[in-house]
Amino acid sequence: MPVGKAIFVTATDTSAGKTFVATLLARVFRERGLKVGVMKPVETGCPLKEDSLFPEDTFRLIEASGFSAPLEVVNPYRFSEPLAPTVAARLNGVKIEPEVIENSFERIRGLTDITIVEGAGGIAVPLCEGLTMGGLAKRLGLGVVVVVPQRLGCINHTLLTTEYAHSLGLDLKGVVLNHVEKESDPSTPYNRGELERLGVKIIGELPHIKGERLPDEIYTIATFLL
Q1: Catalytic annotation, pick one of 5, 18, 35, 40
Q2: Has 40 been annotated as catalytic?
């Protein structure tokens, strides 16, 4: 595997399970002896702890990977408002600079065997003026994994997301279906088959789990991405 490999974890929507999938991948890569880097370029909805914003998803990534770097490198931008990055930045009088993100990413990639970059919200969410999350993945030259909640509506959301990814010319590695809810709905038994029939590349399906157990399916996904 070439040194400095990197992947971008995005989703069809917010709360789809990006951090869940990204942390599982980090744990598997680490278990296999790889030095894993992580990055969350921007995180919104951060609570205040001891007078500082606490980017919870970022710290989950750091814990899972064991990666050590200044927080400003791993997470250059963070905001308290649970809003799209452009909106949160505007409310705080902050200009998100793609060059800052790019420099941090290159620094992390240079120190690791594989870097996992987690987006914010869905793939088409604006990061800054003229650049979406998908555009950032394109700019950084990253292979893209799309996390999709396995529930009613996911067919439409997946098709729109993958179409957008293809329109940007992204290296779309595939889709991970994630059972975010414990209970299934009437669409659950049919979503994967219908998506595959429509030409969507599904590289894995993760069960609803609690605790620290690594599901068997994540090993297959990790192997594919390496």
Answers
A1: 40
A2: yes
